[in-house]
Amino acid sequence: MKQRHKRLIYVIGGLAGLAIVAGFVFNALNSNMQFFFSPTEVVAKKAPQNSSFRLGGLVEEGSLKREDDGLTVHFMVTDNAESIPVTYKGILPDLFREGQGIVTQGQFNDAGNFVATEVLAKHDEEYMPPEVADALEKAEQANKAKANGGAI
Question: What is the pTM of this model?
Answer without folding.
Answer: 0.64
